[in-house]
């Protein structure tokens, strides 16, 4: 069970969730699903590089300089520097997509994710919030925003994401990485920031 929980934590790692959200946008939103694959490929590369590859590439440096004690970052304070550096890369990804002018929706999703990361950094100064729950909550918030904003029938996808969210939350609790409250608040923050940003801000 412990090995399965770790596998789930890696499969649904916070750094992979923006790419998953982008995949949903490019495949379920009508005028986005019709984009040529060459355009979609550019979007995938920009999003994956700026929200996963570049942030993860700094972790060995943080470990070497003792900013973090391990890649698990067990204390809330250890997460502040990696989260802030990730926010910079998130904004870079947003800026590149803004310049390419391919999709204002994906730009908004990345910008909402950026603000969620910034908020998690602030919270981490005082308290250990679940980044896994925050990230997957953000994807759930995206799906809800697509339902309300475009009237797309995504209830099945929403149900699957809620189920996956519960499974990932259970895995994090089983690994004793977080308390139930840290997981619950993380999920609410991610869902709320992305949903409200896409519906009312951007």
List the helices and strands and how they pair.
Layout: H1 2-11, H2 17-28, H3 30-33, H4 37-57, H5 59-64, H6 80-100, H7 104-126, H8 131-150, H9 155-174, H10 180-201
Helix pairs in contact: 1-9, 2-4, 2-7, 2-8, 4-6, 6-7, 7-8, 7-10, 8-9, 8-10, 9-10
Keywords: Membrane, Transmembrane, Transmembrane helix
Transmembrane segments: 7-30, 42-63, 83-102, 108-126, 131-148, 154-174, 181-201
Protein name: PAP2 superfamily protein
Structural summary, described in words:
The protein has 202 residues and is an all-alpha fold. The chain has one domain (2-201). 79% of the residues lie in helices and 0% in strands. The protein has ten helices and no strands. It has helices spanning 2-11, 17-28, 30-33, 37-57, 59-64, 80-100, 104-126, 131-150, 155-174, 180-201. Helix 6 packs antiparallel against helix 7, helix 7 (104-126) packs antiparallel against helix 10 (180-201) and helix 9 (155-174) packs antiparallel against helix 10. Keywords: Membrane, Transmembrane, Transmembrane helix. This is PAP2 superfamily protein. The chain crosses the membrane at residues 7-30, 42-63, 83-102, 108-126, 131-148, 154-174, 181-201.
């Amino acid at each position: 069970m412990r090995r399965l929980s770790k596998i789930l934590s890696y499969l649904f790692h916070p750094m992979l969730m923006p790419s998953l959200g982008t995949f949903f946008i490019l495949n379920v939103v009508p005028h986005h699903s019709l984009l040529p694959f060459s355009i979609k490929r550019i979007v995938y590369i920009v999003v994956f590089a700026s929200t996963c590859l570049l942030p993860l590439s700094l972790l060995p440096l943080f470990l070497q300089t003792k900013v973090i004690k391990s890649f698990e970052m067990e204390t809330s304070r250890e997460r502040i520097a990696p989260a802030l550096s990730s926010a910079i890369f998130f904004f870079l990804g947003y800026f590149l997509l803004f310049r390419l002018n391919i999709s204002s929706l994906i730009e908004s999703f990345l910008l909402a994710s950026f603000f969620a990361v910034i908020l998690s950094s602030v919270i981490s100064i005082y308290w250990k919030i679940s980044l896994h729950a925050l990230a997957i909550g953000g994807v759930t918030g995206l799906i809800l925003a697509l339902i309300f904003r475009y009237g797309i029938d995504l209830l099945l996808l929403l149900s699957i994401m809620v189920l996956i969210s519960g499974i990932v939350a259970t895995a994090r609790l089983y690994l004793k990485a977080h308390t139930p409250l840290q997981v619950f608040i993380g999920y609410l923050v991610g869902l709320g920031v992305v949903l409200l940003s896409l519906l009312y801000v951007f």
